[in-house]
Specification:
Elements (H helix, E strand, L loop, with lengths): L1 H15 L1 H38 L5 E7 L4 H4 L25 H10 L4 E5 L1 E11 L2 E10 L3 H4 L4 E4 L4 H5 L4 E5 H8 L3 H4 L3 E6 L2 E11 L18 E6 H7 L8 E6 L5 H16 L5 E7 H23 L1 H20 L1 H9 L4 H38 L7 H27 L3 H6 L2
Parallel strand pairs: 4-9, 6-8
Antiparallel strand pairs: 1-10, 1-11, 2-10, 3-4, 3-7, 5-8, 7-8
Helix pairs in contact: 1-14, 2-11, 2-12, 2-14, 2-15, 12-14, 12-15, 14-15
């Protein structure tokens, strides 16, 4: 009953000084609103990135050639050793370092029930597709059959590569509608069956167009690897692209599309164990196999850490707001000194006086926190929509923020409340 009376007293006190109460709450409102907005945008971004990465191959295994992890003393003895993932054009790789077709075939034969397809992609370089005096910027990629299992193309005309295109290493290509627009005046049917001259890094080769896909601005694993926004991907059979650049060594990475029901994490360990004998004597490189699940976890953890760090910075406004609450409570106690003296003269205990003012500070912070939550959720949803991500307000974040705002009230309200509780009733009644 006493608690309800204290809440009513606190609300009446706030209503009697509306503007001062609002200004007092402002720091709490800004702090809570900022934190909720940041958490909402951060969670929305994390969810969107996670879903996109999962859709790209939630249960697939990515196998890559990495620099061998050695001690600092050992690394000083290895000439030219570099740490990190190796790209196709690395200059420090020897022929014996590459992953070969024979290795991949043996691996598939060893785990036939776990592997659905192999996605190997070869980046041949940036250049142009030419027809007479017309040209279009392209990035030339060689792809295995498995690439098109995980990267669905929206075909506007023609067909995908056939088995003979791969086995016979034919010079055929699938081009984007953007290339068709530049070379064939947007006529897809006119482009099919025609030969175009592809020029990359001074090398030239004629390719016959067998298909046209709708450009979505996506390249390898959903990213434009070319760094040129005007270039679109031009696809050819894997070995055709490697022949184009005279690459005969092998691969530095590939993707395993697993069968339904396969545990990708277990398969990744098996694959590393399979390749270990091949690279046991290799002092520079080793094989690492990771799953999309582990990559998603790493990325979401990183985004969560960034969100938390920014939220902590925004939370500084809460501390400022708490100091404002303490300041206004001290002013309020000074103004109500005679009231406090009267209550104590009528028998109010120190505990009841202390509780009254702590509850008042908590009410200020709770109302400010509620307003901040509403503004924060609204701002977070708006920002998420503007960024193109589905909004995901954090219920747990909202609850924690409200609890934290009340804790701020208790923490910063205790000193003024304790000061009021310790007043001498006679001195308080004499106060003018």
């Amino acid at each position: 009953m006493l608690l309800i009376e204290n809440i009513i007293l606190a609300i009446n006190s706030l209503l009697s000084n509306k503007m001062r109460a609002l200004l007092t709450m402002l720091g709490i409102i800004i702090g809570i609103g900022s934190v909720i907005a940041i958490i909402t945008v951060g969670d929305s971004l994390t969810l969107s990135v996670s879903e996109n990465m999962q859709s790209m191959g939630a249960n697939d295994v990515y196998v890559m050639l990495n620099s061998r992890k050695v001690s600092e003393e050992e690394s000083s003895k290895i000439d030219g050793a570099k740490f990190g993932t190796i790209s196709n054009d690395s200059m420090d790789l020897h022929e014996s370092d590459y992953i070969t077709d024979e290795m991949i075939k043996e691996m598939v034969d060893k785990f036939p029930n776990d592997i659905y397809a192999i996605n190997a992609q070869y980046w041949a370089g940036r250049g142009t597709a030419n027809l007479g005096n017309k040209s279009a910027n392209i990035t030339l990629y060689g792809n295995s059959v498995g690439y098109f299992v995980t990267n669905k193309l929206e075909m506007l005309g023609g067909k995908m590569f056939s088995e003979s295109d791969y086995t016979e290493m034919k010079n055929v290509t699938i081009i984007s509608d953007k290339v068709v627009k530049n070379l064939f005046d947007e006529d897809v049917n006119k482009a099919l069956g025609k030969e175009i001259e592809v020029s990359v890094d001074g090398k030239m080769q004629a390719f016959t167009i067998i298909g046209v896909y709708k450009n979505q601005g996506m390249a390898m694993m959903g990213m434009n690897m070319s760094g040129d926004s005007s270039a679109t991907d031009l696809y050819v059979p894997l070995k055709s692209a490697m022949n184009f650049t005279h690459e005969t060594n092998g691969y530095t990475n590939f993707q395993i599309i697993t069968t339904v029901g396969t545990d990708a994490d277990i398969l990744a360990k098996k694959v590393e164990a399979f390749f270990e004998p091949y690279y046991r004597a290799n002092r520079n490189y080793e094989i690492e196999a990771i799953t999309m699940g582990s990559m998603v976890t790493m990325l979401t953890d990183m985004l969560s850490t960034i969100t938390l760090a920014i939220s902590i910075v925004a939370g500084i406004a809460l501390v400022v707001g708490g100091i404002g609450v303490m300041n206004i409570m001290l002013v309020s106690i000074t103004e109500r000194t005679r009231e406090i003296g009267t209550r104590k003269a009528l028998g109010a205990t120190n505990a009841s006086i202390r509780t009254q003012f702590i509850v008042e500070a908590m009410i200020i912070c709770l109302i400010g926190g509620a307003i901040g939550v509403i503004l924060g959720v609204g701002g977070g949803v708006l920002a998420s929509n503007l960024l193109g991500y589905p909004a995901k307000p954090s219920i747990s974040g909202i609850i924690v923020s409200l609890i934290f705002s009340m804790s701020i009230g208790v923490f910063f309200g205790y000193y003024p409340a304790n000061k009021a509780a310790k007043m001498n009733p006679i001195d308080a009644l004499r106060y003018e």
